[in-house]
Amino acid sequence: MKTKSKSLFEFYLLLVVLLSFWSKGHAQNTLISGMEELKWEKIMPGIWKASVGKIGLNPMDYANAPKTEAIKELGDAPFPFDPNASRSLLVPNRASVRLPLNKTEQIYGLGLEFEGMNRRSNVYSLKVDHYGGINGYTHAPVPFYISNEGYGVLINSPKRVKIHVGVGNRKDSDLPELIDRTTGKNWQDRPLSDAVEASVEGDGMEIFVFAGQTTLEVVQRYNLFFGGGIIPPKWGLGFWHRMHTESSDKDVLKEIQDFESNKFPLDVIGLEPGWQSFAYPCSFDWDTTRFPDPKNFVQTLDKKGIKVNLWENPYVAPVSTMYKDISPFTGSHTVWLGEVPDYSIPEAQKVLLKHHQKNHLDIGVSGYKIDEVDGYDVWLWPDHATFPSGNDAVEIRQLYGMMMMDMFDRHFKEQNQRTYNLIRSAYIGASNHNFVLYSDYYDHKGYVTAMASASLSGLLWTPEIRSADSAEEWIRRFQSVSFSPLMMLNAWYSGKKPWSFPEVTDMVRNTIELRMKFLPYLYTAFYEYNQKGIPPFRAMVLESGYDSKETLDGSKLDDAKNPYAEQKRLEVTDQYMMGPSILVAPVFTGQKERTVALPKGNWFDFYTGEFAGNGETITIKTKLEEIPLFVKDGGIIPMLSTLENKSDQTLEVRHYGTKENTYFLYNDDGVSYDYEREEYSLTELKTTKNPEGKLEGNTNALKKSNFNYGNMVWRWMTVKH
Ligand code: GAL
Questions:
Q1: Which superfamily, per CATH, for 245-419?
Q2: Atom 10 of ligand 1: nearest residue by CA position
Q3: Which of 145, 230, 477, 673 has the fewest CB atoms within 10 Å, measured from its CB?
Q4: Terminal Cα distance for the chain, rounded
Q5: Is the pLDDT of residue 555 over 60?
């Protein structure tokens, strides 16, 4: 009897367990009711792909091929989330996916962002446009997000991806507690959702998953999947000055003299719209009153070691000498009454490249600033415009910047010439294009946030300086732009010079010179970008040992005034990493002190070598003449000893802290793609402790070429010798 009741009990227990499994399964089936399971195919170590229907123009056609070996070196990884929980739905003219998200997971990325880093609990309409606030309208709205759980997801689509990141709750999903608004304190206008849901208007999308043990490894895989990052020509890392739009050749020559007499370095002169006979729309032809002899002009600058970069937008004026040839390949609508070439057609590319080769590149122009490839709707073509390729106008708008970058990059590469350019829009897989993003937005803090956020989406960004309301703002902005991928004064309307605020001229010069001395370190950081996909300028969330210490600020909420006000996320967006071991913490006008969040490990002041902190938020007093820089324990920083004599390549190799470390210093000819054919040098810089425990520095040429640096002089910044 006893045994019988026991076995009955066991039977019931089994039934309960089975039932609970069934109901779980059932719940999941309900959850996915009407949605298909995504079929993941592994395409490379740690990279998977799934497809829903068909995509139109493939954005990947305008990005470069994967660096397969480097991806292999990152190693394999298991699929990073429950594959059964990824679903898709295809209905007429809309494709959507649903991917799981756990309660504490944080999401980063989704392109260039000026006002924050964490993307959870929001909806974005990822549209190539001018920046429109935190809503997905931006110059580079890349549909790639990174989870702090160690994976990234790319939605490959030429359409505008609408993405709900942890908001919008399906009735059959894992719902949070239901709270009564009247009596419940924790009621939320955005109840936590257990998914990222994304959709496009169209017939499908592709989804790629990138695994990584860290957020940085996810970004590396993503960048390597598109060929890794670029290595700019060395001149691109120097000082850029864009002239006033009405400047003539004589004005430029005078400006160059002024740079010399004020003792400012100058590597690139940018000409704004006025170099053309007509703009906007553009003629792409020289204005012969302002530039009567372009060839002689460009070559005169070239002899002084100064490159010329030309501004243009893509819209063709009827007076252009390429108008007749390109007109058969333009769309139904105009932009500023100029025709819009359909650069998805190879013949259209040929017309532009032929014209530019003859009129610009053959005489020595080094590259372009490609403007107005982003928005606004009131300027660009409507969604219903038609193009001769038959491609959709929305898709062409989303990919226009990428098409132009790809076309110019291939053209320069065919001539074995490296280039460095500017552009105002980008999209999927841009890391291997030789272009840096910029904007008209001009909020200094936003510009620093953009530098960090760019690194999460395979982008480079310049916080260019144009003008300032005070000498203080001038030097503060100069400091930020000097510690960015492209150091540029864009004086197109202000006509400003670096010495326009005499009170801070020496500080501006020192800042620029400091940046120039970092060249060996920065150039090597770009090599790491190229080889390993590590962004040279990076958001703190990519740094190991970094705790964002994000909190939600609820204190200012006033239910009576604004019942649906949101809690604001307090996050660190005003500091970033440069190269392997430097943390940059720019200062903004009016800041007498600022906080700096130091990741775990010992950090040292760059200028003094003194200990600054470890895994903590410190408050520092600011100095007008200095941008705060901190160096990781063991940091090895090779710097040019002098800028006076370009042929003197003696390096000062700084070491910070007390740790032993190894650094691989890269160098090449600085101008061609010969480095892809093994023409480069690699030197090991190693610090070790001798038997007395004293640090010693050793250099070891691992790979010699004609491009070795000169003497290396070690400088111990923390440990006294
Ligand atoms: C803007 C661009 C500026 C400047 C200007 C010239 O669209 O962002 O940097 O080039 O055009 O008209």
A1: Glycosidases (3.20.20.80)
A2: 272
A3: 673
A4: 88
A5: no
Banded model confidence at residue 644, pLDDT cuts 50, 70, 90: confident
Q: Are 457 and 225 in contact (CB under 8 A)?
A: no
Closest CA relative to residue 606, chosen from 572, 589, 576, 581: 581
| Closest ligand 1 atom to 466 CA | 9
> Is the pLDDT at 404 greater than 90, yes or no?
yes
Evaluate if pTM is beyond 0.70. yes
Residue showing tokens 């940018």: 270
With a CB cutoff of 8 Å and minimum separation 6, the contacts of 561 are none
Only one residue has tokens 């009407």, namely: 34
Asked whether the predicted pLDDT for residue 446 surpasses 60, the reply is yes
Ligand 1 touching residue 272 (CB < 6 A):
yes
**Helix or strand (DSSP H, E) at 43:** strand 41-44
How many residues does the structure list for the chain? 721
Which of these CATH numbers, 3.40.50.720, 2.60.40.1760, 3.20.20.70, 3.30.930.10, describes 37-178+187-225?
A: 2.60.40.1760
pLDDT higher than 90, residue 186? no
Q: Identify which of 247, 269, 280, 311 to mutate to test ligand 1's pocket (most ligand atoms within 8 A of the CB).
A: 311
Closest CA to 487 of 244, 263, 268: 268
User: Across residues 419-435, what is the average pLDDT?
Assistant: 98
